[in-house]
What we know:
heterodimer; A: 468 residues; alpha+beta; five-stranded antiparallel sheet; 25 strands; globular; disordered N terminus; B: 342 residues; seven-stranded antiparallel sheet; four-stranded antiparallel sheet; 12 helices; 11 strands; repeat (chain A); E3 ubiquitin-protein ligase (chain A); Ub_ligase/GEF_domain (chain A); RCC1/BLIP-II (chain A)
Amino acid sequence: MNGGEEVGGGGGGGEDMEEDGKEEMMVVEARGRDKTVLMWGYLPGVSPQRSPLLHPVAVRMPDSPAGDRWKDVSGGGCGFAMAISDDMGQSYVTSGKHEETPEVFDLPTKVPIVKAAAGWAHCVAVTAQGEVYTWGWKECVPFGRNVRDQSSSGGASEKEERHSGFMSDQVMPKSQGSRTTGTMSGFDSRGGDENTKRRRLSSAKLGPESSSSGEEALSAPPCLVNLNVGVHITCVAAGGRHTLALSGQVWGWGYGGEGQLGLGTRIRNVSSPHPVPCIESASFTKDQSSPATKGKQGSDGQAFKLIGTCIKAIACGHSAAVTDTGALLTFGWGLYGQCGQGSTDDELSPTCVSSLLGVEIQGVAAGLWHTFGQLGTGSDQAETLPKQLDAPCLENKNAKLISCGARHSAMLTEDGQVFCWGWNKYGQLGLGDSIDRNIPAVVPIENLQPKNVSCGWWHTLVLAESPT
Amino acid sequence: MGEEPGGAAPGLEKAAETAAGLVDEERRAALLRRITEEGGFAYVSSAEKAAGGDLRAAEAAREMAWEQLHSGPWHEVVPAWREAYAMACLHVAELRAGAGERKEALRALDMGLIMGGPLLRRDLDAAVERIAAGKDTEDDAAANVGDCADKWWEGISKNRDLAEVGKNYLCSEWKQELITFSQFLERIQSTNCPANVPYLAQHPLFDQIRELRDDIMIPDYCFAGGGELRSLNAWFGPLGTVTPLHHDPHHNLFAQVVGRKYIRLYPASASENLYPHAESMLSNSSQVDLDNIDYQEFPKVEGLDFIDCVLEEGEMLYIPPKWWHYGLAISCFVLSVSTAGV
């Protein structure tokens, strides 16, 4: 799922300079003080002996001479967790194969990773240069450039070529698989547990013929996502089968059958990044106007004042985006009221949650369904309109960050407490038991100050540092 | 399905002693491969551990497949995930039964029958038969009686059914729950709050429990139009159970089996006076609560012509496509069977 979204922070993800500056500060800070990653919950697919972690447990880096140098936590998907380390900004993946011991995941770039996110079975990472890499479940990985080509071929022309790709109702053609074989070896030896399973599956259950022809088709190695020249991504979010990337405007690719790509259609697969018309369609949808009146609407500017001019935060599950003026836009599947529009219809285009206009939204996170007690409202009812959580334990607490897993949620407060609520069958809430909670409960974390929280599919990660 | 048999040999001896024995290796490998292509890496890994006897992994695989069945609209669910769900249910059932937890095992199999795909249908049926055969002695009496009613009772009570709870599906308190048939009866008896009445509605009971289907005779004239049967559903609820005013796209034969039901029909042409819900999912349902009509809000309903009747046991009503219908149970237990076709 998507990583924690900053609620109280300055936002401004659109400005590259600011983002870079912030990055540097974090590095300096990290050198001064060790950061710890805590994990609880369950990574399904692990060894038989392993039971869910019901309490926060520190995740240790393997053979790190200088101690644990964690930089950030990035949730993870079903069966793996993801965090970013300080050394070269490498991404570490903990997986069933390695139990709680993470293993470095090599990306074909020397540029540090600044953000990462995971969907159900795919990962996506942003470099300090604003480039995006994605890997894992093939359906979610746009047929990007073979990373081995990177050194030999000029980037610009290839990017041009990629962008003429447009939308396609087809998934990535099979031939792409063989083209990327060159990078598979690196992925195989280092990669996430996908490969282990794949290999085990193919060796045990499939004949040699089918495994050799099918293997590359099953999991994609890291691919550089081709974006228009000059597009600098600062943040990514991943849903079950789609991905959003933020550059001030929003780009989307992957599956869009319920409108989660916000393109106004139920297009089943978009194989290259497409601009999601957030500001435009949100302002027009609000006034229920036809496309014919667009020009007029744009010129009077009234709608823009409310909606804002760029996007500063994104989330996937269904899809959501927050504008610079704090308006919340939602799109995608709505059967359980996820879009907050007062209905259970799907939203095919970014649509402003008008009941929240007037509240300046800082950040947003989105889960799998977020109904049935995952909402923290104290009841098991689905809500089709946004509702403020009013549990007594939240009195005098200010939210700083929020994050959503498949069926649970977590929040970091400004005073450094972590609250969790929702599904707890696998200890996702870190409360020492496996009893579901329909109101937020504080997670006991001793002697550490939580700095970030990010939910994976059935687990939760916290980045914390020792008190001064 | 239809994959070539490739390297199936290593699984043979293992199959005899573990849960994997329920599903032959070839189909199993083909299904796991499809699931891998669907990104279900963690499922495949868990399913393999489950086949090796790991109950926790079996439960986790079932939970993962269940999530896949619910993380998008039903029509978008990839069929392989329904098969994967059935496979996980088989694993769970086998391991539970092995641990002596027969009830849990049967419940898992029923979930597989309700939500799973057709690929492992026979394996599920066989497992139900086998695990149910080891049942406690007090249940045996019922099984030996050839009488239809007892067969129904037995068939239903050893299985689990999907029931709706709440006055009707348009109420805010309405929800769907999976409960056992005995729980269902207990709730009917214990509840005096209409918001909590259980109702087994529109349930494909006869797909779930094949023995019961043998007792339903589809009249030949159902096929007179050359079309095929679309659904065969059971409706079972206590006095006061309501099916709110709605319409369906198919021809519908509604047979009253036990108890009496009040039925009201409005012709399809009355649609604009019946205030259908604006939401697409409920657009075949009227906003008008016929039990308590708000004429201020819905003035056009007043004076609207309708046809009504009380359907007695053994009677059958034909409801044309698009005709609005409403049903109210007016005796203490009501069982109806509807068949719909094109």
